Amino acid sequence: MFEIFGIPSQALFGQLLLGLINGSFYALLSLGLAVIFGMLNIINFTHGAQYMMGAFIAFMLLQYLGIGYWPALVIVPIVVGAIGIAIERLFLQRIQNLDHLYGLILTFGLALIIEGLFRNYYGSSGQPYGVPESLQGGRNLGFMFLPNYRAWVIALSLIVCFGTWFAIERTRLGSYLRAATENPTLVRAFGINVPRMVTLTYGFGVALAGLAGVMAAPIYNVSPQMGSDIIIVVFAVVVIGGMGSIMGAIVTGFALGIVEGLTKVFFPEASNTVIFAIMIIVLLVRPAGLFGRLA
Amino acid sequence: MATLANASATPARRETNWSIAVAAIAMVAFLIAAPFVLYPVFVMKALCFALFACAFNLLIGYVGLVSFGHALYFGWASYFAAYSAKAWGLQPELAVLVGTAAAALLGLIAGRIAIRRQGIYFAMITLALAQMMYLVALRVKMTGGEDGIQGVPRGRLFGVFDLNNEMTMYVFVLVVVLAAFFLIYRIINSPFGEVLKAIRENEQRAISLGYKTDDYKLVAFVLSATLAGLAGSLKALVFQLASLTDVHWTMSGEVVLMTLVGGLGTVFGPVVGAFLIVAMENYLAPFGQWVLVIQGAVFVICVLAFRRGIVGEIAARLHVRL
């Protein structure tokens, strides 16, 4: 046991770990938002509700069908993604030529509907979801105690984030995607089915939110308002990072999670407002965001 | 902004304003008769929201700026008005002034920050700033946290009129709100308002004509925040309560809904929208969380099929300005 700036190391590293966990979710969610914004020019306000849906579907699978965490990790993103594809086909496609503020309002409405439905059946209190047996317990690293499940969440989210970055920046499919973001008409002229790509992109971005929801279920309580609580913070993360770059979204997400954790140690009163404060400073100093270009 | 403008632009722009005059007379007549037919508190609530929605409309309808955090000015103004009336014992007119001034100051600060980005980012920034101030409201002592500020005294207006009388209170609210409506109408029809519309239609061109568009946007933002604050201050006196509901993001969403339902960029749309949504919430209150689902559905339907809103639709059918 030793101290850093008068803070016991256990507390410091504990909050750092919590910050990294929060950062994992910020990164996964802002990544999904950035991917969707790139293709659809829509800020997906439903993202938080889809993350909440992910957690709830995992909870329902366990509760009603006895399907545990590991299968849920695969099933839930597919289900949430499929619902996302239906939403894109039914609603978002109809407004693609309008000002993108209508997209914001439409997805806001959808978020209200989803949250309202879950609140109707589950109230606003949280539902418990246990840590899977194989990841229970933890190990003592000497300077801190590391619960296995939290280590797993950080590792998985790093893998998923960098996998997504690789797929978009380094593969052929990703290059089509980036080209279609720049100039959809020209890419269509090359015989690539852009509308289908848009639909699948939305499905993928939403599936990421669903996956984050499953991962979050054992850490936070599964509650209908868990989505709206986090989505506004993620918006601030996106403003800070700028939505132009995939890597930017990932790095900003993790970094802000860590900053938030550190604030909890040194200045606990400000821990839940620090991200917004950083947003203000970034806007004053570098309005385009850390990784963004001004449109 | 072109599509936003198309949805809200009313045809026959050069038409004389007789249609507005007729509608205004009808509205005033309705509002004078209303407290004798409906519950005065219900009408006062709707009036406060109508002013809130009109203030919001000033930004979205005439400058094309979508603020997703207008609850910040509405809610914090109501805190300041309630606090100054209760803790400092200020007279009601001064309490309302304090609340409104606080909103103006908050609008100036938030506006300076938010105007640095456009479009979708502007909406996200205003939402984030409002959420930050919601979290502050949750923490600081002045707001009373979860309890809010309860039992705010209505007091005597100018030391003479006892506002505990429901009818006196109604007349006070009505006079203030109508005066604010008139002010908004004058603003949008002034040379300043024309510049705002020019910015909405084509900001680059407005800049090339030599207008400092950021300054115009900031002034419009502060005006909108101030009027939203006036609405919030009045609401604190009417309900003798300032609470977290009024600073929560759902309130910011609600004012978007009211304006959208009534008609973006129309003079009377926000008023109609506010009365409809407040009435809807009143009747649906027993259904609990379904209110959220229904609100969401109304949003979706409005965006997909009904972008002009009720008043916008009527105006388009009759080829008049409303």
CATH fold topology of chain B: ABC transporter involved in vitamin B12 uptake, BtuC
What portion of residues of chain B belong to β-strands?
under 5%
Main β-sheet of chain A: number of strands, strand sense, barrel status?
Answer: 2 strands, antiparallel
Beta-strand segment tally of chain A: 4
In whole angstroms, the N-to-C terminal distance of chain B is 21 Å
| Approximate strand percentage of chain A | under 5%
Biggest β-sheet: strands ordered side by side in the sheet of chain A: 1-2
- The CATH architecture term of chain B is Orthogonal Bundle
- Largest interface between protein chains, with number of residues from each side: A-B, 44 and 47 residues
What is the C-alpha radius of gyration of chain A, as a whole number of Å? Answer: 19 Å
Q: Give the % helix of chain A.
A: over 70%
Mean pLDDT of chain B: 89
Structural overview:
The complex is a heterodimer of chains A (295) and B (322). With 295 residues, chain A is mostly helical. Chain A has a domain of 200 residues. In chain A, 71% of the residues lie in helices and 3% in strands. Chain A contains eleven helices and four strands; from the N terminus they run ββααααββααααααα. Chain A starts with a strand and ends in a 10-residue tail after the last helix. In chain B, helix 3 packs across helix 12, helix 4 packs across helix 10 and helix 11 crosses helix 13. The longest helix of chain B has 27 residues. In chain B, the strands form two sheets. In chain B, strands 1-4 form a two-stranded antiparallel ribbon. Chain B has a two-stranded antiparallel ribbon with strand order 2-3. Chains A and B meet through helix 4, helix 9 and helix 11 of A and helix 1, helix 6, helix 11 and helix 13 of B.
